[in-house]
Amino acid sequence: MISQTGRAPVPGPAIDPELVRTYSVPGPRYTSYPTAVQFRDDIDAEKLLQDAGATGRDLSLYFHLPFCESRCWFCGCTTVISRERNLADTYIDYLEKEILLLKPRLGENRRVVQMHWGGGTPTFLSPAQIRRLGEIIHRHFQFSEDAEVAIEVDPRRLEHDHIRALRDIGANRASLGVQDHNPEVQRLVNRIQPRELTVRTLDWLREEGFGSINLDLIYGLPGQTATSVLATLEDILSLRPDRLAVFSYAHVPWIKPAQKILEQRSELPGPEEKLAMLCAMVPALTAAGYVNIGMDHFARPDDELAAAQRNGSLQRNFQGYSTRGGTDICGFGMSAISQTPLTYRQNEKVIDRYYASIDAGRPPLVRGYTLSPEDRIRRRVIMRLMCDMGLDFAETGRQLGIDFVRHFQAELDSLDGMERDGLLRRDAEGLEVTALGRLLVRNIAMRFDAYLGVTKGSFSRTV
Ligand code: SF4
């Protein structure tokens, strides 16, 4: 069969439905370890802030911009739904106040090598508001010449001047939410986004010189079938994005009650159907020449994400996969999470309380976590597995100051079944995740997670 994009399919990994059903269990996405579920409310904010200034490392800034005009029923983000653009003016005022509260704690001469605006919808901000926030940030922080500045862009209600404004503030990477091109699926999930808007946005981004453009798709939404998601994917592939994230829809209505609306509107695809969607899409992505980075992410071989994986410098953090390591993540805005080698800290998730804390002159921290030496060992192992798709036992042990095999004997023994099932290959020196295992890498990482028994009920399924 020749695919609709005209390429002859190259076989992806053989996927045995029974096998994937076995491994479809609730599990973390490991954007941190321990996961945010482990963060504690009884924090010593002063200690966390001292740690924020202790390392002197380069900074990766994150700005959470929570506003969206309407709610997509599948959404798992921390949002504020409103059509009032002037809310963003107030929010930008508070972001600057938060910067002023934190900046003296960070110490002098911290260079920014990366910045990410997520949400919500960063492009809810008008072009003038984008320029204003950009000016504030650049006034308070020193960026390196080659800083990577990535923005999440919503093609709906977007004007060319939004993209020009993003370019003006130094943005050079963009990620677009697409989810699905099928109009019926778009209606069911309350996100009407005609294909022309996505194409027009891509054209504008390329015209303004943005690189490494990522498109997000979701499978497992109501109204989707294996045939329909493949049709969307084939269409998207014809647009040649540099990166594609093909997320399994995370149905967690006990955390995001609005997702219950999806259940009421139409039946959600079951595990069998989701599996059929995955089996349809992976070979098409491989045939189109995309590298399976792991955890739903695919990139063209010449993209820097694929290059970073090849040279062992790929990182994983709250924004997903990243090419910049050795940084402290400094998050601003409601719900934003920050990270140093020793700690995580998270801001207040409710906007009024976020404002109230800043009005009282307090950094708006409400949760956090200090890693134990064992947490740090396990974080390193899990993150290298997620990024490198393998582990060199001697080298990892040397970096961590442990006898790796002895330290993780029980965990390594527990991988026997996964090895038999073809998820990984092992010898005395290390392990390598196979093409099939890349689809299930969080199942492998979960074997090294010391908290899974406690946190298991908090996560969506791995497939
Ligand atoms: S999916 Fe994006 S645009 Fe839709 S509600 Fe969530 S954050 Fe807003």
Polypeptide structure, described:
The protein has 2 domains: 293 residues, tm_1862 like domain (pyruvate-formate lyase- activating enzyme); 79 residues, Arc Repressor Mutant, subunit A (Orthogonal Bundle), CATH 1.10.10. The chain is built from 20 helices and 19 strands. The strands form 5 sheets. Strands 9-10-8-7-6-5-4-1-13 form a 9-stranded mixed sheet, with helices on both faces. α8 runs parallel beside α10. It is globular, with a radius of gyration of 22 Å. The two termini are 26 Å apart. The N terminus is likely disordered. Bound molecules: iron/sulfur cluster. Iron/sulfur cluster binds next to loops.
Task: Please write out the topology.
Elements: H1 17-23, H2 45-52, E1 58-65, E2 67-68, E3 80-81, H3 86-106, E4 111-119, H4 127-140, E5 142-153, H5 160-168, E6 173-179, H6 183-188, H7 195-207, E7 211-219, H8 226-237, E8 243-248, H9 260-265, H10 271-287, E9 291-294, E10 297-299, H11 304-310, E11 315-317, E12 320-322, E13 327-332, E14 337-339, E15 343-347, H12 351-359, E16 365-370, H13 373-388, E17 390-392, H14 393-400, H15 404-407, H16 409-413, H17 416-420, E18 424-426, E19 430-433, H18 435-439, H19 441-446, H20 452-455
Parallel strand pairs: 1-4, 1-13, 2-3, 4-5, 5-6, 6-7, 7-8
Antiparallel strand pairs: 8-10, 9-10, 11-12, 14-15, 15-16, 17-19, 18-19
Bound molecules: iron/sulfur cluster.
Residues 68, 71-72, 75, 77, 79, 119-121, 154, 177 line the site of iron/sulfur cluster.
